[in-house]
C-alpha cells in the first residue's frame, strides 16, 4: 500500500491500450492546449469547451491558477490541515498563505475562512473531500459560502477525490451563478492515472481564458491525453473501481470504529486516524506490519485504501499499540 492516495487499482485497459497506441506517434507534438480532452469533458458535462482547461495534473493547473490570480503581495486562504502542497504552491507564486484551522470534527470551518478574507485576499482554496481528513462539505454549505465571498476573490474547489464521495449534485452547475468559482479535478485518483499526469478544471469562460493564458503550451502530453480520453469514456470501469475502493474503505472504517477510535467519515480513497501525539508511533507500527501510511506528527495518520490484507495489517498495527491511542 502506498501512502500518496494513489489508486490501488490499475488504469482501465482501454486507457492502457490508448497510451500504448499514442506512444507509437510520440514523435509528434500533442495539441497545444489539450483541446481534444477539453472538448470531451465539456461535452459530457454540458459545458462550453472554453470553460475547461486541461493540463499535466491538477497540481500544475493549481500552479497556473495561482500565477494568474495570486500575485506577490496578495494572500490565499486555505484550510489547515489540508493538502500539503497548498502552502508550497502559494509561496512559489510569491503570495502569502493564510491557513484557517479545521473545526473540531476535522471539517473546513467555512465561517472562519470567510471572516479571514481581507482586502488583499485573491484566492480561497477549498479542498472537498479534504485531504487528509476525508471530510466532505454539503453542496448547500459550499453554495452559502460562495454567496458570501466577494466577487473579486476566486474560490477554487479542489475536488481531486470527488468520485469517491457521492456528490448530490454536479458542482459544475454552480459555475453559471458564480463567475469567481473554479473547480479543480484530476485523473490521478479514481481513474488510476497518477503517473500519466492529467487534470482538468472547470470555470467561467473569462477565468478559464486567464488561466489558459499563463499555462505553457503542450502541458498535456499526447500519452496522458490519450489515456485520460479513454479513461473518461470508460465509465463502467470507473464505477467498478470506485465501488471496490469504497467497500474496502467501509471495511477498514468499521474495524477502526469497532476499536473505539473516532474516525471522521471520509469521501476520499483514504481514512484519517486522529492519533495526536501517537501519530509517529502508529506510522512505525503500520510500517512494521508492512503498510506504508502518512503520519502528520502531533495530528494524525492518513491511510490510503488498498487491498484487504493491507486493511487487516493496519488494524493489527493499531491493536499492537492499544490502549495508548486516543
Ligand atoms: N489536490 C489534492 C487535494 C490532492 O490530494 C492531490 C494529490 N495528492 C492533488 C490535488 C494533485 O493531484 P495531481 O497533480 O496528481 O492531479
Automatic annotation (TrEMBL):
Signal peptide extent: none
Domain Aminotransferase class I/classII large per the UniProt entry, residue ranges: 3-310
Uppermost EC category: transferase
Top-level lineage group: Bacteria
Cofactor(s) the protein requires to work: pyridoxal 5'-phosphate
Pfam families to which the protein is assigned, alphabetical: Aminotran_1_2
Gene Ontology molecular function terms on file: histidinol-phosphate transaminase activity; pyridoxal phosphate binding
InterPro entries documented for this protein: Aminotrans_II_pyridoxalP_BS, Aminotransferase_I/II_large, HistidinolP_aminotransfase, PyrdxlP-dep_Trfase, PyrdxlP-dep_Trfase_major, PyrdxlP-dep_Trfase_small
Enzyme Commission number(s) from the entry: 2.6.1.9
Gene3D superfamilies in the record: Aspartate Aminotransferase, domain 1, Type I PLP-dependent aspartate aminotransferase-like (Major domain)
Keyword annotations: Aminotransferase, Pyridoxal phosphate, Transferase
Family indicated by similarity: Belongs to the class-II pyridoxal-phosphate-dependent aminotransferase family.
Protein name: Histidinol-phosphate aminotransferase
Amino acid at each position: 500500500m502506498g501512502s500518496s492516495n494513489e489508486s490501488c487499482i490499475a488504469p482501465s485497459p482501454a486507457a492502457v491500450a490508448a497510451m500504448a497506441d499514442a506512444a507509437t506517434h510520440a514523435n509528434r507534438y500533442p495539441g497545444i492546449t489539450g483541446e481534444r480532452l477539453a472538448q470531451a469533458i465539456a461535452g459530457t458535462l454540458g459545458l462550453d469547451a472554453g470553460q475547461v482547461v486541461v493540463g499535466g495534473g491538477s497540481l500544475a493547473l493549481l500552479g497556473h491558477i495561482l500565477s494568474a490570480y495570486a500575485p506577490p503581495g496578495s494572500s490565499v486562504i486555505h484550510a489547515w490541515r489540508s493538502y500539503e502542497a497548498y502552502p508550497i504552491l502559494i509561496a512559489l507564486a510569491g503570495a502569502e498563505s493564510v491557513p484557517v484551522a479545521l473545526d473540531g470534527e476535522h471539517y473546513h470551518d467555512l465561517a472562519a475562512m470567510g471572516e479571514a478574507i481581507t482586502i488583499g485576499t485573491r484566492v480561497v482554496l477549498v479542498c472537498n473531500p479534504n485531504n487528509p481528513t476525508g471530510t466532505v462539505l454539503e453542496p448547500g454549505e459550499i453554495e452559502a459560502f460562495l454567496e458570501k465571498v466577494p466577487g473579486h476573490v476566486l474560490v477554487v474547489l479542489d475536488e481531486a477525490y470527488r468520485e469517491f464521495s457521492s456528490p448530490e449534485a454536479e458542482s459544475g452547475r454552480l459555475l453559471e451563478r458564480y463567475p469567481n468559482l473554479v473547480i479543480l479535478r484530476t485523473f490521478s485518483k479514481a481513474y488510476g492515472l497518477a503517473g500519466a499526469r492529467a487534470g482538468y478544471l472547470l470555470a467561467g469562460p473569462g477565468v478559464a481564458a486567464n488561466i489558459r493564458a499563463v499555462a505553457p503550451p503542450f502541458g498535456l502530453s499526447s500519452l496522458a491525453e490519450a489515456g485520460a480520453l479513454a479513461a473518461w469514456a470508460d465509465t463502467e470501469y470507473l464505477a467498478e473501481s470506485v465501488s471496490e475502493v469504497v467497500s474496502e474503505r467501509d471495511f477498514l472504517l468499521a474495524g477502526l470504529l469497532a476499536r473505539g477510535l473516532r474516525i471522521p467519515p471520509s469521501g476520499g480513497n483514504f481514512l484519517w486516524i486522529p492519533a495526536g501525539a501517537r501519530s509517529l508511533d502508529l506510522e512505525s507500527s503500520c510500517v512494521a506490519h508492512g503498510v506504508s501510511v502518512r503520519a502528520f506528527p502531533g495530528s494524525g495518520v492518513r491511510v490510503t485504501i488498498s487491498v484487504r490484507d493491507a486493511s487487516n495489517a493496519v488494524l493489527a498495527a493499531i491493536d499492537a499499540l492499544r490502549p495508548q491511542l486516543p
